[in-house]
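pipeline: protein-struct stage 2 | run 1193 | EamA domain-containing protein
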Amino acid sequence: MSDSVARPRLALAVAVVAISTSAILIRWSTAPPVVAAFYRVLLTTALLAPVLLARHADAVGDLSGRHLLAAGLTGVALAAHFAAWFESLSWTSVAASVTLVQSQPIFVVTGAWLLLNERVTGRTVLGVVVAIAGIVVMSLGDLLGGTAVGPRPLYGNALALVGGLMAAGYVLAGRSLRQRLPLLPYVTVVYGVAALALLAVVLAQGLPLTGYESREWLLFLGMAVGPGILGHTLVNWSLAHVESSLVSVTLLGEPLGSALLALLLLTEVPSSWTVAGGAVVLAGITLTARSSE
């Protein structure tokens, strides 16, 4: 295998491992979920900003009003994604939350069809239907079977789905801006807006921004460096070197990795309903993601 093929695949493998740690770091944190989300985004922005100033100092200043609006919408969608998903982990299992938040390809193709008039194939429809069936199994099965993991699994699952929907909005709203800007200016601007939006939520709820133990600050930094920098940055870099279908399918390793880490580090065993429903959801997401290529 040549280096041009091996290096992106190695980068994807590292990225999936890094992203898979996100749910565990969130669970370990005792800070309010929206505060943890704020510091993850803020610290990621702070780490990227010096590189942006050194390499793309003029790119952000060249943005038009239209592109600034797109950046704002994208950042707000990303903030809503983090807020909903971080909160979901307080109420449902890691396996269910991470699987459902990965459902964003379903919302992307549906939104592209409704809002952008993009073509929808029969395979796309089948993928969406399969994924929805898996979501129903996962969300209702635990309650009917009496083996739910988490204090309010249905509520947590709903929040994770909202997180997936907002992630889809992040993708759709950012399309024009991503075409206009290189990767680093794009993600820095969007993360900056997301940090401001999350800060507004924290302040509106009257939550403390300081007074946390050093352990919490290390967890915030870990969320920024691991899932934020090593995870999503490597994924975006890989998109320039391998097919997006390979990237989409590889990212489905996150629910599996997160569930395994939750089993090992949190002693959290997903129920049989979550495992069965999650497998169906992942199959539907795979069909949907591949059909959009």
